[in-house]
Every structure is written in structure tokens, then in C-alpha cells.
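Progress note, sequence design subtask.
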């Protein structure tokens, strides 16, 4: 069966869970997934047992917006937050760029006074830089810090950074230690992939090393670096990490519908989920998640007219953050995600890629049917990343000594840093 709207209702899977209503908006994999039963899931207590009680962040529902470069800036985070509670992580901030006072890096690290808890993902492979950056972010009021150890980009792994780091557990430990020692009462988490490739899986040992250094949780994107975003995420690896670790595991990969989050938590026992591509052009997914975790059947997504209202709102927020030129340029990629699957959207995409103002945006979509219901085909459609795979580039002789904890050489000059920041567009 394809991803059609669920029309037949099968018996609820869990004995005491609420029945599934006949009019559920879901694809075939989710027709009979019951919403959360009372007391079935607990809030994630991020930092519990790791930082003092003042630093612990209760996260309910146990849902985290994935850090996504070029995506999870203040504009998008604030929009998502209005739909539901949870934890909304910033896009990745590079330690070198931050410490050198790079203007764009600082803008991306910025927040608003009403953003609480404030969560920032960092990237760095030098313990001294990381420690200094963490201290500064904590002084600036950040409530949660995550480190990106899953970036599969060749420019980064070729020098031993990103997803190459967990291959060397002692190096990973050194970097996590530098963060934890400087974070005070702020919980530090680590986000990683399963490993480099199927015959070089690193997540169990890397997870233990992170836990051993005081990480408050480990997020696992259940794919290898060589897989990039292709194929299905391997949720069994999330279940395995839950068995191996005492700290909470946050499961990541292929949450497209709210019911997927419930399925992932039931199947793996993970303490929370991280949602990436599923919310691109669908920020109301956080309302659906919130409802499903609170035992209610989620609302239907908006019709096209409602989607346009959200697009306009999003454009206003991007303009406020980046100014009109950069803001509208950023909005172009969002337009293709928001309109995905609606009838006639392919024909207006060219105009959407040229918009310079909110008026242009509204004019470009004016030929589409405002009353069209949200298409089910768009629910699990690929967004942002394709289905290609790669052979991961590692430094010459990198696998010869896995106990080595020497930090890899990162970018130093302004030009190098800028080139890295451009390349670091995916974890
Ligand atoms: C556009 C884009 C940018 C990303 N940037 C980052 C990043 O900066 N840091 C990171 O840890 N992961 C990054 N990721 C990976 C996501 O956080 C997430 O692990 C991945 O998309 C898998 O989750 P999903 O199947 O729900 O999309 C990025 C993903 C996308 C699609």
C-alpha cells in the first residue's frame, strides 16, 4: 500500500490505548498507531543527575527540533515553538567563527529574551576552543548545549572532524570533557551517527565515552555517515543504544508524522525524539506531536490558504532576523518545501525562486487553489536532502590508531572558516 490517506481502521495496537478515529490523516504505516495513553510517556528531564536541579530542563512533549544548518535559526525556532512545547535547538555554531566574532556566526547564535529554554548546537574539534566558547555561551544565558559529531561533509571528515570524531572515543571524550567542565549547570548533549559505514559502526563505544564524560543525553541519527540521508533510519540501533547507556537516548531519523514519534519511542524505549526534515515547511508538526503525546488525535494540517498564512508569517520573521534582502532570499527554499505536493506547485516554483518581497510571494502562489487540503503525498516526501550515498573521506592512516586523542586540524584563517561554515551544511 502506498502513502495514501488511512481509510480503514485496524484495532488499536496497545491494549488500554485510546481507539483510532475513522478520519485519521496519516499514511498507511500509521493507520493503527494509538495516540499516547495516559502516563505512557514521561517528560524528558534533561540533565537530571548530571547538573544541579536548577539546570535540569523538563522537556514535554519529549520532542526536540533537530539542529539544521541554514534552517533552525531564530525565525524558524520561534515559529515552531508557537505550535507546541519541546526543545528547539539552534543551527550549528562553529567554535572558531564564534570566537573570532564572525558577524554571521554571532547572528546565528543569537536568541530573543522570550526564547526559553535556549538551546545551541556547537561544532568544534579543538578542546581549548570548545571550552572557551562554552564558557562564553553559558555566560550569555544558554540553557542547553549540544555538540555535532555527525557531520558527514567531506571537507570536514577529511581532516578528522564531524562524524570522524566518534571513531576515536578518547578524542570524543576529550572534547565532551572540555565542554562539560566549562558548562557549569548547563546540560551538554552529543549528537552522532551510527558510524562511518556498516562495517565501521562506532555509536556504542562513542555513546559510552560521552556518558563517561558527563554528557546528559546522546542523540543518535540512525544512519551512517556514508548513508547521508538515504534509505530508512535504522531504529534498531537506537534500541541498542538505549540498552547500552544509562543516560537518556534521543532517537533521530524519519519522523515525518506525529505517529512516527510514538512508534519510535515504543519500539526503541528512547527517552525522546529529534525531528529533522519532517518539519521543513510543516511547523504545525509540533502541534500534532504535542497533541499525540497528550493523548489527543492531532488536528488536520492547514488547507493551502492556511499554509500561505504560515509562509507569510515565516517570511516576516526571516526579514526581522536577516533584513529584507537576505530574509527573502532565505525564504525561497522554504517556499518549495511549503508548497510541496499541492496541485500546480511545480509550475509556480520558478517564480517562487525569484521572490524579493512578501508581495511577490503572495502573487506567486495566487494561482493555486486556496481550498486544497494538505496532500498526503507531501507527508513523507524528501525535503532538503537527496538520496545519494558517499564513500566517507578520512585522513590518511586515520584508522591506524583509534586510541589517539589528538584534535584534528581545523580551519584557522577567516577564509578557511568561511569555507568550512559553507560546507558544514548537514549532520
Ligand atoms: C538542511 C539540513 C541541515 C542539517 N544540519 C545539521 C547540523 O547543523 N547539525 C546536526 O547535528 N545535524 C544537522 N542535520 C541533520 C539533522 O539534524 C538530522 O539528524 C537528520 O536530518 C535526520 O533526521 P530526519 O530524518 O528527521 O531528517 C541537518 C539536516 C538537514 C536536512
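Output:
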Amino acid at each position: 500500500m502506498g502513502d495514501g490517506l488511512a481509510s480503514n481502521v485496524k484495532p488499536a495496537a496497545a491494549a488500554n490505548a485510546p481507539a483510532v478515529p475513522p478520519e485519521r490523516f496519516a499514511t498507511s504505516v500509521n493507520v493503527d498507531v494509538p495516540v499516547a495513553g495516559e502516563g505512557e510517556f514521561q517528560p524528558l528531564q534533561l540533565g537530571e543527575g548530571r547538573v544541579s536541579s536548577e539546570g535540569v530542563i523538563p522537556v514535554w512533549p519529549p520532542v526536540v527540533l533537530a539542529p539544521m544548518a541554514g534552517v533552525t535559526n531564530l525565525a524558524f525556532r520561534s515559529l515552531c515553538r508557537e505550535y507546541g512545547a519541546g526543545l528547539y535547538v539552534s543551527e550549528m555554531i562553529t567554535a572558531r567563527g564564534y570566537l573570532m566574532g564572525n558577524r554571521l556566526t554571532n547572528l546565528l547564535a543569537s536568541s530573543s529574551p522570550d526564547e526559553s529554554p535556549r538551546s545551541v548546537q556547537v561544532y568544534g574539534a579543538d578542546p581549548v576552543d570548545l571550552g572557551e566558547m562554552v564558557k562564553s555561551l553559558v555566560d550569555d544565558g544558554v540553557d542547553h548545549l549540544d555538540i555535532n559529531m555527525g557531520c558527514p561533509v567531506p571537507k570536514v571528515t577529511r581532516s578528522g572532524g564531524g562524524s570522524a570524531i566518534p571513531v576515536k572515543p578518547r578524542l570524543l571524550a576529550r572534547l565532551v570533557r572540555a565542554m562539560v567542565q566549562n558548562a557549569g549547570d548547563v546540560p551538554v548533549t552529543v549528537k552522532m551517527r551510527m558510524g562511518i559505514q556498516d562495517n565501521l559502526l562506532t555509536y556504542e563505544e562513542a555513546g559510552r565515552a560521552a556518558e563517561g564524560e558527563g554528557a546528559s543525553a546522546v542523540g543518535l541519527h540512525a544512519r551512517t555517515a556514508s548513508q547521508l540521508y538515504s534509505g530508512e533510519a535504522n531504529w534498531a540501533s537506537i534500541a541498542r543504544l538505549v540498552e547500552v547507556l544509562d543516560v537518556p537516548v534521543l532517537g533521530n531519523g524519519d519522523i515525518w508524522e506525529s505517529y512516527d514519534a510514538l512508534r519510535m519511542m515504543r519500539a526503541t524505549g528512547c527517552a525522546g525524539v529529534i525531528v529533522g526534515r519532517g518539519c521543513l515547511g510543516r511547523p504545525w508538526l509540533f502541534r500534532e506531536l504535542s497533541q499525540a503525546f497528550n493523548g489527543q488525535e492531532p488536528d488536520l494540517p492547514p488547507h493551502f490558504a492556511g499554509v500561505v498564512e504560515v509562509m507569510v508569517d515565516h517570511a516576516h520573521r526571516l526579514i526581522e532576523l536577516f533584513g529584507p534582502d537576505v530574509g527573502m532570499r532565505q525564504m525561497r527554499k522554504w517556499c518549495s518545501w511549503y508548497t510541496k505536493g499541492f496541485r500546480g506547485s511545480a509550475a509556480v516554483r520558478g517564480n517562487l525562486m525569484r521572490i524579493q518581497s512578501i508581495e511577490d510571494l503572495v502573487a506567486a502562489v495566487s494561482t493555486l487553489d486556496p481550498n486544497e487540503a494538505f496532500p498526503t503525498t507531501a507527508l513523507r516526501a524528501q525535503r532538503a536532502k537527496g538520496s545519494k550515498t558517499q564513500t566517507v573521506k578520512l585522513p590518511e592512516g586515520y584508522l591506524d590508531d583509534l586510541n589517539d586523542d589528538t584534535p584534528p586540524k581545523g580551519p584557522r584563517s577567516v577564509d578557511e572558516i568561511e569555507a568550512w561554515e559553507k560546507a558544514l551544511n548537514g549532520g
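Residues 304-322 form the longest helix (19 residues). Work on this subtask will continue into the next period as scheduled.
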